[in-house]
What does this fold into?
Amino acid sequence: MKKCILLTFLMLLTLSTTLFGQVKHEEFTDESILLMDGSLISGVELTNKVIIVNVWATWCKYCIKEIPDLNRLAMKYQNSDDVLFLAIAPDDADHSGKLKRFLEKNEFLFQQVAPSTTPIFLKRTEEMRYPTTIVYNKHGEAEEMFVGALKKGELKKIHRIINEFAANGDL
It folds into this structure.
């Protein structure tokens, strides 16, 4: 189980570090992402989807400020099986329950990836600025990366990317 979790977070590192290469979804078909609610997203479920990844922290005021905008984005595409919204917050690496308590009081509609105790994961996310949002196309290629709180124009760009794939039948 620990190996599965470690592999899961290594996969997420590929999605969420500042070293964004072209990662193909096909590489993840044998992996799963463990969510905070205990459910798993299989690697197969990652294929042929636009994936929006938000890296955030409960102590980051800009992260918290952008949650309502991210929720509106997730609500707009909530009935689409072709878009996946993931959030990664390393707040509970010490198992303090801080992230769970925050989410009980504050709605965040992105699927929350289970916190990791893997030092590599913590080291990699600490190198990032919070918040960071990455948009991957259905081919697993990073289309855009936004560092800092999302601005109105950046949110429009995310909508454009999602809609572009839908219009082309790529979703």
In short: Residues 48 and 138 are 4 Å apart (CA to CA). The radius of gyration is 15 Å. The first strand starts at residue 32 and ends at 34.
